[in-house]
Amino acid sequence: MKILRRRLLPTAALLLATLDAPAQVLVSDYNLGRIVRYAADGSDPAVLVAPAAGGLDQPHRARIGPDGLLYVASAGSDQILRFQADTGAYHDVFADTTSGLDYPVDFIFRPDGFVYVSSQANNAILRYSAATGARDFGWIASHPSLSAPSGIAFDDAGNLYVSGRFSYNLARFDAATGAHELTFGDVPFALGLVWSPDSRLLVASGYGNTVEAFSASASGAPVQNTFATGLSFPVGVEFSPSGDSLLVANYGAGSISRHALADGTPLAPFAAGGLLSGPNYFTVLTPAAVPEPAAAAWCAGMAALSLPALRRRRLQPPQTRPAAKTTP
What CATH number did the domain enclosing 165 receive? Predict the structure, then answer.
């Protein structure tokens, strides 16, 4: 089976401007309504984006965009907001309900010039121009088998994978057309997704308190196994800045745990308590993706941020709006 390689999408000028910037981890805290920034080793926590800044409400995914600004899915206000990446100061609204956005959870910037957003309350993945914020109304990914789309991830072949929070499963779509290709898995309250270095798709199971893993097989059907157990309502899953462990946001415990890549064995926690109350989705920023104070403004308008793409592979198939926003 082909092992897919990590590929970078560099912007030379941004790389030069951020060469010495340290890696960071940005954590959305659902309970406290803010974004907390950590150093690569989990030290030096600080509030980057304050509660209610720019109307921020129930923050989910936060990512650095091609313009060097910090984008945050503000699910409670049905918006994607932009902030200064170095100071956390409010910038503007990137997308909102006027485009049909309804409880945005996760989003990904892609090299095709679009940003793909899971709009949970209308059971769809929408896409927007990363340059203008205009929605592409000719494209949508949705299917009756998928309810409350949450985490999203792409494989190297350009396929879009989506977790179904209420349908307890995953679905795959053709990213070019939005066409549904397959639905698979049994993952109670499926949330965050990430591709592992060995090309397994890892999925947080909020109700199962596990991280489930899906891998390809000779028969072409994705094989499901449990990767990590003993969690407390896991939501976000990402790899550590050093790439040597898996980080998991435990919403129920107010912590981010670390796990061995080989077998999911718990390691020393990345962060617990302190500024964290309800960690949700989070993002690991490598040095090339952390704007220095001057670099964010200098790089505005440049096309493509240097964001490392995770190793991926394609998995082959086997054949409403949240009633109460008390959990992510």
Answer: 2.120.10.30
Domain region containing 104: 12-186+238-245+253-258+272-298
Per-residue model confidence as pLDDT tens digits over 170-214? 999 999 999 999 999 999 999 999 999 899 999 999 999 999 999
Cα of 246 vs its chain's centroid, Å: 14
In a domain, 291, yes or no: yes
Compute the distance between CA of residue 131 and CA of residue 148 in angstroms, rounded to an integer: 27
Secondary structure (H, E, C), the chain: CCCCCCECCCCHHHHHHCCCCCCEEEEEECCCCEEEEEECCCCCCEEEECCCHHHCCCEEEEEECCCCEEEEEEHHHCEEEEEECCCCCEEEEEECHHHCCCCEEEEEECCCCEEEEEEHHHCEEEEEECCCCCECCCCCECCCCCCCEEEEEECCCCEEEEEECCCCEEEEEECCCCCEEEEECCCCCEEEEEECCCCCEEEEECCCCEEEEEECCCCCCCEEEEEECCCCCEEEEEECCCCCEEEEEECCCCEEEEEECCCCCECCCCEECCCCCCEEEEEEECHHHCCCHHHHHHCCCCCCCCCCECCCCCCCCCCCCCCCCCCC
What is the number of domains present in the chain? Answer: 1
Tokens coding 140: 């949508």
With tokens 């798709």, the residue in question is 201
- For residue 277, tell me if it sits in a domain: yes
User: Would you say residue 125 lies in a domain?
Assistant: yes
Q: CA-CA distances (angstroms) from residue 248 to 120, 153, 178, 225, 253?
A: 21, 16, 29, 17, 11
275-319: per-residue pLDDT in tens?
999 999 999 997 755 554 434 433 443 333 333 333 344 554 333
Structure token digits, residue 294: 């001057």
- Name the CA radius of gyration of the chain, rounded: 18
Q: What is the pTM of this model?
A: 0.85
Confirm whether 134 is domain-assigned. yes
